[in-house]
Design goal:
alpha+beta
């Protein structure tokens, strides 16, 4: 029975360096599809360690040898979308720094704390008192897409990072104003962190977290391989 792996943080720059070493040393590896992670195997075919890639890393290609040539340091431009009920924060990052940002707020939450779009899906048409919330909800998603379109940066982005409940994310694409990317765009990557109320400060906090990768060590034998790249605990 395999014990739970020990997890370490690793910077964006050191993730690039570690992947380069994996290629140079011809380690066996496997891509965990959809999880932006690599599992590295020892010569006996046992799991040695895994690398979870920082959020701005590009979508994985056919081979690590090809992939590492596509990874730049600092990261290529990327978008970040944080969406909750009545609150959205949009950010555009160049060289890992926030250079464009916009917060959008609308009144779309009922007295019981449930978003109007959620209520409609569960209960059907609501009473007259919900008209303002419904109009604000429609305007909310149109405003998000209008701002993304006005920035005209989506085509140059290597990644589009997002955090949104599934019904809100669907509403982004069902809006009368379409976003500047498709729902199946391979650049899309869900943010795996808990997100506070979307604001500029939250964009920056999530960006700091997202620029870190993780190394999962399955045994101490591999520690000597990864140790030079790990983030020291007092730097975390």
């Amino acid at each position: 029975m395999m014990l739970s792996p020990t997890t370490y943080s690793i910077t964006y720059e050191n993730t690039v360096a570690l992947l380069t070493q994996i290629v140079c040393q011809s380690y066996g590896y496997e891509v965990e599809k959809g999880r932006s992670a690599l599992v590295i195997y020892d010569k006996a075919g046992h799991k040695s360690f895994a690398v979870k890639l920082p959020l701005p890393f590009p979508a994985f290609t056919e081979s690590l040898e090809t992939y590492i040539e596509e990874v730049n340091d600092p990261a290529e431009p990327y978008l970040m979308l944080l969406i909750q009920a009545g609150h959205a924060a949009l950010g555009y990052f160049q060289e890992e720094e926030l250079v464009l940002h916009k917060t959008i707020t609308r009144y779309m939450v009922r007295g019981n704390g449930k978003a109007q779009v959620t209520y409609l899906k569960q209960k059907g048409k609501s009473k007259a008192g919900s008209r303002v919330r419904l109009a604000q909800t429609i305007d909310f998603f149109e405003a998000i897409n209008d701002k993304l379109l006005s920035w005209a940066v989506a085509d140059e982005c290597q990644r589009i990072l997002y955090s949104a409940p599934i019904h809100f994310w669907n509403s982004v694409f069902s809006s009368k104003v379409a976003p500047p990317f498709k729902k199946d765009d391979p650049r899309l990557r869900a943010i795996p962190y808990d997100v506070n109320i979307p604001k500029m400060e939250e964009l920056e906090r999530i960006n700091t977290l997202g620029l870190l990768g993780q190394v999962l060590l399955y045994g101490e034998k591999a520690f000597s391989i990864v140790a030079p790249y790990l983030l020291k605990q007092n730097e975390d």
